[in-house]
Amino acid sequence: MSETIMPKEQSKKRKSTKMETQKKVVVPGERGVKLIHNPVMNKGTAFSLEERERLGLKGLLPPRVITQEMQARRIVENLRKRETDLSKYTYLSALQDRNENLFYYVVREHLEEAMPIIYTPTVGRACQLFGHIYQRSRGLYISIQDKGKIREVLMNWPHKDARVIVVTDGERILGLGDLGVSGMGIPVGKLALYTACAGIDPTLCLPITIDVGTNNETLLQDPLYLGNLHTRVRGKEYIELMDEFIAAVEEVFPDAVIQLEDFATENAFTLLHRYKESSRLFDDDIQGTASVALAGIYGAMKKKKSKITDQKFLFLGAGEAGIGIGDLIVDAMVEEGMSRQEAMKRNWFVDSKGLVCAERKDLADHKLPYAHEHGFVKNFIDVVKELQPTAIIGVSGQPKKFTKEVVELMSVINDQPIIFALSNPTSKSECSAEEAYTWSKGKAIFASGSPFPAFKYKGKKLVPGQGNNVYIFPGVGLGLVYSKAKIVSSRMFLEAAKVVADAVLDEELDRGTIYPSFKRIREVSINIAAAVTQIAVEDGDVPGNLLTNIHKEIRKLMYEPDYPKFI
């Protein structure tokens, strides 16, 4: 697969000026049918008559030249004819495989419609059926058998300047559990959102799945499963593999940012703490989820006209997402003047066994900071009665745990109860928007991880907000790519949350939405990227001249999916 080719002197300049990814005038490295079959270069029926003549395309395409806008109209028309979301997913995946610019043009112009198809909730079902709907390889697969040779595997990637890598080992895909290599749909989907929402050129994006086996017996018995047919490798051998992977990435792609995605809780915390001080790396499930949840809380504070330090949070779920959110809320409370000890006591957790408290002797290390002095309480509803929180946050992966009784009790305790049902996909949500609004008699400030439709309660249209990490990670990644900051700090995610909350309009708050419209997501990403760069400058990590005309400079770097002109 050929890359965009500029004249040599321009190519050298591009390397020294960070990331100039706009494709305007291009010298193709291929001709004829090979050019049509190259998804990065292909324009399909939009090749001009002159281009067809020069590039050996005459007769290989229908005679009439069609604009990209008209091509997109045809794509959307056919997309809407498909009866299931999964068939829409495979249709768009096929488009991405043959014409990347057109794929991103369609996604950009129809983002709110396309996002639930190319990512949550549809991507979850696509991962479950990955071996059955597989069409064409995308990204890299690194197997446990590649130990000692990971550098060579990375060198096989056709684009030599990867800037954003999303990697998973497939053990905890959304709320669906261990899907092994079938989890590749997650890195692919995340990176599509990096491009659509933050303008990262798709040729600079690299999805990777690390195959160390799977403990999913159904997959091990499935003749169409595409991964290694053995149980998961753990312990020393697993860590050695990940150490080699991180080192190889830093050698082969020294400017790359690594996003850890959908690792199981123990490995997620272990890997983040192992590498975060030495590598350009973050965990989206811990830090990205924390940031988008905090953004929703800031939005709720605007609606309630209250302060975060006045709140008490109760989490259902004490894994990587829950603890990550709790940690960032504590940082936010400390920033507003509360002591860290008091801030910790404003955050309580319920796991699968009951209340996380000091008297329990069965707690994993990541839960211990939140094991407060309190008698053990088993049932969630009883914890709500005793603690009387102002907010409940569901990150359990267990559907329907926010029952009618729970929501009604929260509405008795609070005039405007904060109810976040953040588990993905929709089938795993702790409650639906309709349930939250109905059971609270329209009082709830609600957000979910996957989208729910608007709901009319007593004549008032309520539009639920979606606490989607897409508000956070593309902008953080864009800022890291622009600034080349060496370390990804927690403060970057705190500031990103503020940027998202600041973008919420009063009319959105009036209809119950505590997140900004996805239509403004690229501007939100630019503002997050600027905030990330500001922090990197303040930390002494990058030079201060990066702040000069920063919004303009960041915008100049952003990929637009318009077709290039071939010369």
Average pLDDT value? 94
**CATH superfamily annotation of the largest domain:** NAD(P)-binding Rossmann-like Domain
CATH architecture of the largest domain: 3-Layer(aba) Sandwich
At the fold tier of CATH, the topology name of the largest domain is: Rossmann fold
> Which percent range describes the beta-strand content?
5-15%
How many strands in all?
A: 16
**Structural class designation:** alpha/beta
Which class of the largest domain in CATH terms? Alpha Beta
Compute the number of structural domains.
3
**Proportion of residues in helical segments:** 40-55%
User: Total helix count?
Assistant: 25
The largest sheet has its strands arranged as 9-8-7-10-11-12-15
The unreliable regions are 1-18
Between the first and last Cα atoms, what is the distance in angstroms?
18 Å
Radius of gyration: 24 Å
Question: Looking at the structure, what is the overall shape?
Answer: globular
Largest sheet: 7 strands, mixed
